[in-house]
Design brief:
Elements lengths: L2 H14 L3 H21 L6 H24 L3 H17 L6 H15 L7 H12 L5 H11 L2
Length: 148
């Protein structure tokens, strides 16, 4: 079952369960996937492309939630966190801090990095190995910390 099919099945199940919040989030996600399909001029997206869309939408929700909290709008922040929870169910299992550190150390060794100037090469390798199981900001912070 492709990720697109899984999203469609989840949408159908949420509609039958009359779960308005989940249904709305999944409809928004299908819409975003549709826009990417139109943009790329393809009939169907690969699972990797769909996963990228889910990650992008999840990041939007994380950022919006933080901004609403800062702006004193807890009810809107809670709505964003609810949508984020639904999106995170579709993402692969996130790496633990220990797994992330091991991955970054392996990427540093593979790139032969000796200073912070090599951060770009290390990030490229680490992101390829992480394959969407950690957000870029956390990965970047860890790479910066671990590079000499």
């Amino acid at each position: 079952m492709t990720l697109t099919e899984k999203i469609s099945a989840e949408l159908k199940a949420s509609m039958m369960a009359k779960d308005a919040e989940r249904t709305g989030t999944l409809r928004m996600l299908k819409s975003a996937i549709g826009y990417v399909q139109i943009e790329k001029k393809v009939d169907a997206l690969s699972d990797a492309d769909v996963l990228a869309v889910v990650q992008k939408e999840a990041k939007k929700r994380r950022d919006s939630s933080e901004e609403f909290e800062k702006g004193g709008r807890p009810e809107l922040a809670a709505k964003e966190r609810g949508e984020l929870k639904v999106l995170e169910e579709l993402l692969p299992k996130q790496l633990t801090p220990e797994e992330t550190e091991a991955l970054v150390m392996a990427a540093i060794a593979e790139a032969g990095a000796t200073s912070k100037k090599d951060m770009g090469a290390v990030m490229k390798i680490a992101q390829a190995k992480a394959a969407g199981r950690i957000d870029g900001r956390s990965l970047s912070t860890l790479v910066n910390k671990l590079l000499p």
